[in-house]
Amino acid sequence: MGAIITVTNLVKDFRLGEVATHVLKGISFEVARGSFVSIMGPSGSGKSTLMNILGCLDVPTSGTYLLDGVNVGALDSDALAELRSRRIGFVFQQFHLLARTSAAENVELPLLYTDTPARERRERARRALAAVGLAEREHHQPSQLSGGQQQRVAIARALVNDPALILADEPTGALDTRMGLEIMAIFQRLNRDAGITLVMVTHDPDIAGYGQRILHCRDGRVHRDEAVDHPGDAAADLAGLAPDEDAAVERSA
Amino acid sequence: MKLFTSARIAVRALRVNRARSILTMLGIVIGVAAVIAMVGVGAGATERIQQQIQSIGSNLIIVLPGSISTNGVRLGAGAVVTLTTDDAKAIVAECPSVALAVPTVRGGAQVVAGSNNWATTVQGVTPDYATIRDYTMLLGQFFTTPDVEAAAKVAVLGETVAGNLFGDVNPTGQVVIIKNVPFTVSGVLTPKGQSPTGQDQDDVILVPITTATQKLLGANKANARAVGGIMVQALSPAAMDQAIDEISALLRERHRIQPGSEDDFSIRNLTEVFSAQETSAQVMAILLGAIASVSLIVGGIGIMNIMLVSVTERTREIGLRLAVGAKRTHILSQFLVEAITLSALGGIIGIAVGVAASIAISSFARWSTHLSLLSIAASFWFSAMVGVFFGYYPARKAAFLNPIEALRYE
User: Count of CB contacts below 8 A, A vs B?
Assistant: First the structure.
C-alpha cells in the first residue's frame, strides 16, 4: 500500500495588494491508499485551503503535492480538470446538486466531461445510486429529497467516475445526527469494501472519530497527527439510535 | 465533450428557465422579423420603380427642339420649332448607335364617340413608336407605315380613353371624332399604368404623325414638317452615350450651327432620369434595413444581458461543473451554445414572423413586397452571429470563474 497523497512542505500565500497572508506555512504528510483520514481544526486554520489543494482546485505557492505519483503543482488548468474528473470525487457541505435536475442526471454530470457514451453514463449513474441506497429515487429532483438523501446523491456523483480518492468538506455540516450517521456509514462501507481513500474535513470530533486517523490543523500547520485506535462503527451507531418518526414516515411512503 | 452534449446541456438549461428564454428570444424574433419585412418592403419598392421604368421603354433618348437664344433672350426648350421629320429620318439613317427614331407631335383634344366625350392627349407618331415604347395591342392592330404615308384617319386608343368612350364595347372599327375629324379605331393598347412621374400612360390616342400635323394639330406655318420631338432608341444601354454624341453631331451639322454656338435642340437620356428614382428607392431600402438591424442588435444585447444574469445566477453550478472535471472550454461552449441556440431559434421564428408580416403588408397596404431567399438566409446567419458575438463575453466570464470562489458564491 503506497501513499496516494504525499504532501511535502506545502506553503500557500494569498496576496491582497501589498499584504501577503500565509495560510499554509509548510505542511507535510502522507495519506496511505485505502485509508480514511479526518482533518479537524478551527476556522482559519487553513484546512479548507488544504482541501482545495488536495482536490486540485488550487495549486500551492511552494512545496510539492503528489497525487498518485503525479506532481500536481506542474499541471495546467486543463490537466487539473482531467485529474479531478478521473481521480477525485468531491462531497460538499451544501451538496451542490443541480436544481430541477433528476438525481440520475446529477450523478451523470462528471461523466459528461469524460466523453462517456450516454448508455454507459446511465448505467454507471444507476449503479452509483444503488451503492448509496437510492436506486428507487433516480428520477427524483433534489427538492423532492431529504437532506440526507441529497447528500447521498452527491456521494453517488463522487463515486460515478470510480475515483481513487474522495474528498469530503464538512459532509455532515448541514445534516442532523441521524442523517450524518447515514453518511458516515456509507463512507465507512465504501472505504472498507471498495478500498476508496477518504479525506474528510469536519468540525465535529464524533464524526472525525469514524476515520482511522485525525490530522489537527492550527495556524497553517499540522498541529497533531493522531491515529484513532478504535474508530466508531457508524452503521452500528445508526442502528442504536431511537427509531425516528420522520424516517418511519419516509420509509412507509 | 461533443458539441451534441453541449447542445443538450444548453437546451436543458433553456427549458428550465422557459419564460426567460422565450422573452430573450423575443428580442431576436422581432429583430429578424423587422429586417426581413423591411428589406422586403424596400426591395418591393425598388422593383416597382424598375417596372415603371421598363414601361417607358428601354434605352430611350428624347430629342427636343429649342432652346435658342436670340439677342441674349433665352427661350425655353420647345419654344421654337427646329426639329423636323427629316431630322428623325436622318438620325436613323446616319447614327450607327441608334436603332429607331420616331418623330412625335402632341396636343390636347376633346374626343367624341357616340354620346360620350373625353379630353385627352393626341399624339402623332409612326408605327416604330410601338416598338420603342414597348407597346403591345390589347385589341386590333397598330396603324401601319402606309397609313402614315397616306395620312390615314386611323387612331389607336389607350385603355383609359377606350373605357371612357366605349365602356365595355370593343372600339375596334368604331369611329371617334377628334376635333371634328372622324377617325376609325384600329386598335387598343395594352395598359401600362402610371409612368414614373405619375402620369396615366393609357390616357392617350395615337394617330399617324402626318394625319396629326395636317389635320388635327395645325401645320406649322414656317415648316410643315416640324415635329414636337424625336424619340430615339439606342441599340443598347451601353450605346446610350455614343448615340447621344452621334445625334448631337448630326443635328448640329444639319442645322448648320457654328462651332461655339449653342445647340438649337436638347437631348435627354430618359433612362438616366428615372434611374435616379431607382437609386433613391434603393437608398430607402437600405435605410429601412439599417433601422431594422438596429433592433436586431438591441435583441443581441438582450441576449448578452440575460446570459450575464444567468452566469451570475449559476455561479455555483459552474463551480461544481469545474470541480467535477469540466474544462474551461466545456463551460465556454456550454454557454456559447446556449446563446446561439437562443438567437438561432429566435432567428427561425423571426423569419416566419417576418415572412408573414411581408405578406400581410403587401395584401393589406397594397404595397408590393419582395422576399428574397438571400435576405432570409442573411438575417438567419446574422442572428446566429449575434448569438456568438453577444454570447461570447458572458461565456468567457463563466469559463474563467475560479472554481473555489464559484462554489462558495451565495
Answer: 61
Kindly state whether B326 is in contact with chain A, defined as any CB-CB distance less than 8 angstroms: yes
Closest C-alpha to B111, from B40, B162, B59, B50: B162
Among B324, B337, B410, most A C-beta atoms within 10 A, so best to mutate, is B324
Q: What is the dihedral of CA B325, B328, B334, B338, to 10 degrees?
A: 150
Most confident range, picked from A67-76, A120-129, B174-183, B326-335: A120-129
Longest CA pairwise span in chain B (Å): 105
> Does pLDDT of B182 surpass 50?
yes
Euclidean distance between CA atoms B1 and A114, whole angstroms? 7
Work out the number of other CB atoms within 10 angstroms of the CB of residue A174.
16
Establish if A114 touches chain B: CB-CB under 8 angstroms. yes
Nearest to A113 among B317, B319, B327 (CB): B327
Phi, psi (deg, nearest 5) at residue B44: -65, -45
Q: Which is nearest to A198 in space by CA: A236, A164, A235? A: A164
- A3-252 belongs to which CATH class? alpha beta
Asked if B316 and A86 come within 8 Å (Cβ–Cβ), the reply is no
Q: Which residues of A touch B2 (CB under 8 A)?
A: 115
> Residue A113 is nearest to which of B12, B326, B407, comparing CB atoms?
B326
pLDDT tens sequence across B121-139: 999 999 988 888 888 888 8
Burial class (CB in 10 A: 0-12, 13-18, 19+), B174: middle
- Which residues of chain B neighbour A55 with C-beta distances below 8 Å? 323
Q: Which residues contact B370 (CB under 8 A, 6 or more apart)?
A: B40, B43, B44, B46, B47
Question: What is residue B99's three-state secondary structure?
Answer: strand
Number of other residues whose CB lies within 10 A of the CB of residue B388: 15
d(CA A68, CA A4): 5
Q: What is the pTM of this model?
A: 0.70
Whole-number Å distance between alpha carbons of A160 and A88: 10
Backbone angles phi, psi at B122, to 5 degrees: -105, 130
B321 shares contact with chain A (CB less than 8 Å):
yes
A50: closest CA among A61, B49, A163?
A: A61
Give phi and psi for B189, each to the nearest 5. -80, 145
Q: How far is Cα B95 from Cα B97, in angstroms, rounded to an integer?
A: 6
Cα(B233)–Cα(B102) distance, integer angstroms? 9
Q: Tell me, what's the ipTM?
A: 0.90
Burial B51-72 (b: 16+ CB within 10 A, else e): ebbebbbebbbebbbbbbeeee
Domain ranges of chain A: 3-252
Whether B405 has its CB under 8 Å from any CB of chain A: the answer is no
